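Moderator note: this is an archived Q&A kept for reference. The question asked for a predicted structure of one protein chain; the sequence and the answer are reproduced below.
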Amino acid sequence: MPELTINGKKHSFKPGQTILQAALDQGVEVPHYCYHPGLSVVANCRICLGEVWAPNPKSGKLEAFPKLVPTCQQAASEGMVVYTDSPKAVANQKSVMEFLLINHPVDCPVCDQAGECHLQDYSYQYGRGESRFTEAKNKQPKKDIGPNVLLYSDRCIMCTRCVRFTREVTGTNELMVDGRGSTEQIDIFPGMALNNELSGNVVDLCPVGALLDKDFLFQQRVWFLKKTASIDGITASGDNISVEHNDGKVYRIKPRANEAVNKWWITDEVRYGWKFVHSDARLAMPSIKGKPAFDPLMPMEAWRESYAAVDAAMKSLASSKKNLALLVSPMLSCEDAYNLARYALSVDPDAMLAVGPVPFSGEDKTFPGGFTIRAEKAPNARGVRRVLEALAGGKPVANAQGFESALASGKYGAAIVTGNYPSDWVTPALVKALGSVGTVVAIDTLPNAVTAMASVVLPGAAWIEKAGSFENATGRLQGFEQAITPVEYAKSESQIALDLAGFRASKHAVGYCASTTRAEMAKVAGLDCMANALHAPEQAETVESDMQMVEL
């Protein structure tokens, strides 16, 4: 590979890369604001300028460029020598910072971006201790530019990332640059609002605190947040995300860069669709139909009695000469489907395995930048079916309609039904079909018509509350990690299945471990993908806050 020298060290680069791209790929820090790998290069912030020498094609001798060069725009070439830490380059960086801070308000203590602000970081590295600008600052307005985004114009440094995003990625063109000179500002076109399906990404793009998320505004200081790698759990896109949380509560979801899946973006649907995890209506305690509610102070007893009720119903199937039916929701992970199906087949080798209803909304939509919104609103329909088919031993795996039709035959004496959808998913046809079954065991996160009629209700866990894997709409299998513990006394569906299996065998239940389950799954014919095709998070699984707390 070709090489260039950056700040005295040689680094390889890919043909066609710019100096800045080559530096960032090699972990060399070069200050920059306007550059973003998913947007066009405009070179307007000027803080990335560097001194550059390149071989003369005729003589082969190194010759200096006549002036500082924007490293984000200048193509890298073999033998090039670049300095971004020379006196001239550093002087430019200091000048740019002083210029950007002339009209910038000193409101870091109340700014949501504090702690992850590039302006703050570079000001510390290249800024002056005090401002030499003694004239009155230009005061720009605060604007409500859309349902999810606020614009604090006086914090803006005019990097234009947000404007380029709406032009190049979404193609919706809501944002523009209005005015000139020190009075120019970002604004929306008259009669328009920033309300496209990807609007929240402009908050992630903003390197300062100009564009802020209304939902996260003043909710938490970012240095308290812990970050866990996860996957979109409400659509079939498989978008890579980071769940940011503190003290068992999720505060926001942000995209993780993955050029093979979601590039650098996520939809607003995914960004804000996790709220049901902390819903006041969440099922938090097991319940048995016809019995008083369990004492919340005695959760172990509640689970023990519930497991006993389920086990008694499963044992009665043999004497009644009826079968068991299992409906596995496409909202569950591959590991959940595996453990639930294994339990069902241990109870009844002829148990019917079925995939729950797969919600759809509209049609797939692809934006000019290549990002696609999936109409399918279930993260793992393909993964669940793959697992059930592998365990079914050649027997057909039903869909939701097939499940309902089979129950109407009267052949089934018990049904285990899982949900975990972010909203009500139960149809009248399903309720009617379940009415012909003697025992209904519901494992779900939110109350609905099935939990209301169920013989036993067991509270499950949302995807954020457990580890597992999803197979997205393109067949890509991706793992995700547990971010927070399940709400109150809920358990993951895998743990519930393992507990029931342990109760049935009169053995101590095995604790659920995603990696252990995947190793078991990989030994099953048709599930070797769990060992050789699973994409794990590329970054550290969990990042803990390094903020030291001192009691006063």
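Archived answer notes: The mean pLDDT is 92.
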